[in-house]
Write a structure and sequence with these properties.
The complex is a heterodimer of chains A (about 775) and B (about 250). Chain A is of the alpha+beta class and about 775 residues long. Helix content of chain A is about 35%, strand content about 25%. Classes of the chains: A alpha+beta (about 775), B alpha/beta (about 250). Chains A and B meet through helix 8 and helix 11 of A and helix 2, strand 6 and strand 7 of B.
Chain lengths: ~775, ~250
């Protein structure tokens, strides 16, 4: 077979610039062949190399005393949770594939992140997701939403992992370019941490998992260009097909093999498939690797080296085994009826050598390929649009005259409405670990002894039964805030995740983030990215929740422009005592309702309405400046809340976010649920004070940060308010739990909502849109 | 009708520390995923559980066998359709033939129907979507090894998680099943009423679980093994396992 000549046209088709091609020539000292060009193009795509963002990501805090494997070192970060146990977690995007083929795009997104977790030697015990779509009045958006949710559900349900939490926003900026960010978390003992390094010269390299096909050719490169209608259609072949059944078997076999001690290094074949896994393991090991493609299981005859190397067929792993332990691989993978093949060995050359029919088809320096992609410092310019959005004069919008209607409209707004249409398609009870189901501020799962991967037979810890641990998880990211003020918006995404954890009783352990932004070559879009990263980094530092890894997804555009810049922040926290686990809904008639935090930020010219759901829903505006996030105040509040939870004082805790105080109160009254068609509706009588200059809509629907609604038995009220005063934390009694309505009094006005009507508007809103 | 007091009530009759432990087998097919939950439930009740790999041709000595939920063989072709050909299924059929107690859950129900050990079939939910939620179960026949410990009028709040859980059997089969008391559980409202809106998948007559004519093989779509501890939302599922244990004790 003769290779095509490398022409400027071919180089452009591979998304490589002239400068990048010159760098390749310099690194190789010769022209690459077509296979090598393909390898460079995927390894130097943004998806694999972070070439446009690496310099920004350096600002993230990545260390703490609990971090065992920091960001960037392996497939996922690992954090100590005490008693010899650890968690591995990460979030990753599958936006572009999901825009083209929503079901398969989403399934393979979930599959990819689960593989990252078990590659670390951890057993994945839960999944979480963060989704963004256009507005649901478009049939195409409904098709994407339906497909993505079904795909996420299918993968997790079949694999047997509970999907326990998530968030969904609907906004026109995501039309045609949905965001599908999937998170998974696994648990392991410290001694079980596996490494993705090709160690031990002469060690054999195994390929395990299903055969390689032509699906997903160069998906990483596809994810690193603007998404247009044309590219979407052309790139259909770049979308992989997921098989959760195969991945379940592959994970069980890998964990069983890891327990034998035969494994020297393990790496999943995700983006850029065989290419990325071979050159990254060699780069990490400081070694070389040589493989023969004839030995790679292939789905059909006649696949070229280019196709085999760039295929992104799913559920495949690369395993480097200590020489002499080959039989362990054979025995275990035969037991699970999984294909395996010995395809090569570790060398001391530093080169990644690929042979096909005995001939060398690629011979590249592994470390340079993996670690020396060009790094760009892109130009950043403050966007023009901010002049207009910051120019909003709140006086030009009338204060509300229909408070009852406002709350109904907000509760039924798909972004705020109950997501039960989504999570009822996700198995969230499998593995007997889910303690707080989807629908509260954060999900809580328990880590029990059978959550862990099996230990090797000679481990000294085999008879040690670890204590149960309790983990809380939340994922957050309000794109409108980031659009209006990327720095403040970035901070808020982290603060809200930390606040949700605090409401569940948890202390933050670490963060994983997914940066979903537009084309980095556009200076205004790059400015959004740069500022948002600065905000995220400041807040993660402040909350002592280091970033343990994550993902960057750029080029999120539709023909109308870029998406709202959307960092999604998944934070994991630890709860020491199961009695501290707290949920958001009111529990008992007669409990006193307290508001922690200022009811309204009087220094904010927009009184918390900038970028709010209320302005969007009732006035059609995405303008103003988002509410300000004071990290000091936030952290004090979270610490105080956890203290009161530990004292046993707190019956419920719910943070105020989209829709403000009134929506949060509504949710406290109606979001409890024990079974199908069995909501627990419980009323509340609220009386709010208002300063003269405060707008009514701002008081009820403004999104001032740092606010939490708690309910407590009356005996604790004095203690809490006393302690709050000492700690300089504003806490105000605003009402009492009880009755059949939500009643809010402001000055002499009285507003009432029938709970079953409010529940119907909130609970059935998305179902009615999707199933009518 | 209350679920709240279940755990306290149940703990008083728990077998913890009891020397006479029964041995439960939990079949493991490729793709089983609630197998671990079955083992967890049995251990919570103070008894022993052992995995039985699908390639095994013999069950060894077991007091009862659980066929767990999951996606055996990826649910390709039809849920449960391939698993029935596993070597272990021949051993299971012999075990059942000899009167051994077999309980299937979710995918286990589908497998037992495909294998002909239970009447009827499970088809796609009428919603055409996967459904995951807690439901209430009403016990229709309390005179079986799977229901004998469930107090009269005790509703059980347990989760479902399935895409193909709509039970179907033809009219004459249903009549025969009813006359033999083979319908064990139906979906109910929180008040215990057998109303259509309590039925999450469109099952005929709201049927959630059934048994064979001999009364020693039963299965249900909901997951009692995921509802054996209040910490994870409900302990009502214990009633079904308590029934099995009580039956095994009585048979001794």
């Amino acid at each position: 077979m003769s290779d095509p000549k490398i022409t400027p046209e071919l180089i452009r088709q591979h998304n490589l610039t002239d400068e990048e091609y010159q760098l390749i020539l310099k690194q190789l000292g010769r022209e690459p062949n077509i296979t090598e060009l393909g390898i460079f193009s995927v390894m130097w795509s943004e998806h694999c190399s972070y070439k446009n963002t690496r310099s920004l990501l350096k600002g993230f805090p990545t260390r703490s005393s609990n971090v065992l494997v920091p960001a960037g070192e392996e497939n996922a970060g690992v954090i100590d949770i005490g008693d010899g146990l650890a968690v591995a977690f990460k979030i990753e995007s599958h936006n572009h594939p999901s825009a083209v083929e929503p079901f398969q795009g989403a399934t393979t997104g979930v599959g990819g992140i689960i593989r990252d977790i078990f590659t670390m030697g951890a057993r994945p015990i839960c999944a979480v997701n963060s989704l963004r779509f256009g507005k649901l009045d478009s049939p195409e958006v409904r098709r994407l939403f339906r497909g993505v949710v079904a795909g996420i559900g299918h993968y997790g349900n079949c694999f047997g992992i509970p999907t326990v939490a998530g968030e969904v926003y609907f906004d026109e900026s995501y039309e045609g370019n949905p965001l599908v960010n999937a998170f998974s978390l696994g648990v392991l003992r410290h001694e079980q941490i596996a490494r993705g390094a090709a160690q031990g010269i002469g060690n054999p390299v195994f390929y395990v998992g299903p055969a390689t096909g032509r699906d997903g050719l160069a998906g990483a490169a596809f994810a690193s260009q603007d998404l247009t209608e044309e590219s979407a259609e052309q790139q259909r072949g770049a979308v992989q097909v997921g098989d959760p059944f195969m991945e379940k078997l592959c994970m069980e076999a890998c964990l069983e093999l890891l327990a034998t001690g035969a494994v020297a290094g393990i790496q999943d074949m995700g983006a850029a498939g065989l290419t990325c896994s071979t050159c990254e393991t060699a780069a990490r090991g400081g070694t070389g690797i040589e493989i023969e493609l004839d030995k790679v299981p292939q789905r059909g005859p006649g696949m070229s080296p280019y196709e085999i190397m760039l295929s992104e067929s799913q559920e495949r792993m690369l395993i480097i085994v200590h020489k002499g332990r080959e039989d362990d691989v054979k025995r275990i993978f035969d037991k699970w009826d999984l294909p395996w093949a010995e395809i090569g060995f570790v060398t001391d050359t530093g080169q990644m050598v690929v042979k096909h029919h005995g001939e060398v088809v690629a011979d590249l320096p592994a470390a340079k390929l993996a670690d020396e992609a060009p790094i760009y410092h892109r130009e950043a310019i403050e966007p023009e649009y901010l002049k207009e959005t910051r120019g909003l004069d709140l006086h030009s919008t009338q204060d509300t005259t229909d408070v009852e209607g406002d709350l109904h409209a907000l509760m039924a707004w798909p972004t705020i409405a109950s997501k039960n249409w989504v999570y009822r398609q996700y198995d969230y009870t499998v593995r007997n670990g889910t303690m707080v189901h989807p629908g509260s501020d954060a999900a809580v799962i328990r880590v029990k002894p059978d959550s862990l991967p099996v230990l090797s037979e000679d481990s000294p810890n085999r008879d040690v039964i670890p204590p149960e641990k309790y983990l809380a998880m939340s994922v957050d990211g309000n794109g409108a805030y980031v659009y209006l003020d990327p720095y403040e918006g970035g901070k808020i995404a982290v603060a809200e995740a930390a606040r949700n954890l605090a409401c569940s009783g948890a202390v933050p352990l670490g963060t994983t983030d997914n940066l979903n932004f537009g084309n980095p070559h556009n200076p205004e879009l790059f400015w959004q990215l740069k500022e948002a990263v600065r905000g995220l980094a400041d807040a993660c530092t402040y909350f002592e929740a280091p970033v343990t890894g994550g993902n960057v997804s750029l080029y999120n555009q539709n023909p109308k422009g870029a998406i709202d810049p959307t960092p999604t922040v998944a934070m994991v926290g630890l709860i020491e005592d199961p009695s501290h686990i707290t949920t958001q809904w009111f529990k008992n008639e007669g409990d006193v309702i307290l508001l922690i935090g200022e009811s309204l930020d009087s220094d904010d010219p927009y009184q918390g309405l900038g970028g709010s759901a209320y302005l969007k829903v009732r006035h059609g505006l995405k303008k103003g400046l988002p509410p300000r996030c004071d990290l000091t105040v936030e952290k004090n509040i979270h610490n105080a809340l956890r203290g009161w939870i530990a004292q046993g004082a707190i019956q419920s805790a719910h943070d105020c976010s989209e829709g403000g105080l009134a929506v949060a109160l509504g949710e406290c009254c109606i979001s409890g649920e024990s079974a199908r068609h069995t909501p627990h509706l419980i009323g509340a009588e609220i009386q709010l004070k208002r300063a003269e200059q405060d707008r009514l809509d701002a008081l009820l629907f403004g999104e001032t940060q740092g606010r939490i609604i708690i309910s407590v038995p009356s005996v604790f009220v004095g203690k809490i308010t006393g302690q709050a005063e000492v700690m300089d934390i504003p806490v105000e009694k605003i009402g009492t739990v009880g009755g059949k309505t939500l009643s809010i009094g402001v000055d002499k006005h009285q507003f009432d909502w029938d709970l079953s009507k409010l529940h119907d508007a909130w609970f059935n809103s998305i179902d009615q849109i999707m199933e009518s | 009708m209350t679920q709240v007091d279940t755990e306290t009530e149940l703990s008083t009759i728990s077998d913890q520390g009891n020397a006479s432990k029964f041995s439960f087998g939990v079949l493991q097919f490729p793709g089983s995923n609630s197998d671990q939950d079955c083992v967890n439930a049995i251990e919570v009740l103070g008894h022993e559980a052992h995995y039985v790999w699908h390639k095994e041709e013999s069950l060894g000595h077991l007091d009862a066998v659980l066929v767990p939920g999951g996606f055996s063989y990826g649910d390709y072709l039809r849920a449960g359709a391939i698993a029935r050909f596993s070597p272990v299924m021949r051993a299971l059929a012999d075990f059942a033939e000899n009167g051994g107690l077999v309980l299937g859950v979710c995918n286990g129900f589908q497998i037992l129907c495909e294998a002909g050990l239970l009447p009827g079939a499970l088809i796609l939910n009428r919603s055409l979507q996967f459904r995951s939620e807690f439901v209430h179960l009403s016990t229709v026949n309390s005179g079986t090894p799977f229901t004998k410990a469930i107090p009269a009028d005790q509703l059980m709040r347990v989760p479902i998680a399935h895409g193909e859980g709509c039970y179907f059997a033809d009219g004459s089969t249903l009549n025969e099943m009813e006359s033999h008391g083979q319908i064990l559980w139906k979906y109910a409202t929180a008040q215990g009423d057998l109303e259509d809106h309590a039925n999450p998948n469109g099952s005929v007559h709201g049927i959630a679980g059934v048994c064979n004519k001999a009364g020693n093989v039963a299965a249900l779509m909901p997951h009692p093994e995921r509802a054996c501890q209040e910490a994870i939302g409900s302990a009502d599922g214990q009633w079904i396992f308590r029934s099995l244990i009580e039956h095994l004790k009585d048979a001794k």
